[in-house]
Amino acid sequence: MAHGRGHDDELDRLRRRQLLDASDLGEMIRSRRERLGIAQLELASMAGIDPGNLSKIERGSRRSHLDTYLKLCGMLGIDLFAEARP
């Protein structure tokens, strides 16, 4: 899977720095979703959120409730407590 290494590098880069805001978290969610091969529509359906809202969350153009971020991260296997801290 030649495509996968770039996603891994991006996720590693994100892990090495402090999460500063919702757009950083959205980028991490998008990166992991793509790495796992899950379509936006599929993840939105599984999470019970509007696909348009998921798209905006991933782009950082819309903030959501903390429970939505936690649900998405949990579904994608992103452990925020294990991420790099300053």
> What is the helix fraction of residues, given as a range?
55-70%
Radius of gyration from the alpha-carbon trace, in angstroms: 12 Å
**Outline:** globular
Relevant CATH superfamily = lambda repressor-like DNA-binding domains
The helix tally amounts to 5
Summed over residues and divided by their number, the pLDDT gives a mean of 81
Reported for the largest beta sheet, the result is: none
| Total E-strand runs | 0
Query: Which CATH first-tier class would you pick?
Result: Mainly Alpha
Characterize the quaternary organization of these chains.
Answer: single chain
Total number of domains: 1
CATH architecture: Orthogonal Bundle
Terminal Cα separation, in Å? Answer: 33 Å
CATH-derived topology: 434 Repressor (Amino-terminal Domain)
Class based on secondary structure composition and strand pairing: mainly alpha
Order of helical and strand elements: HHHHH
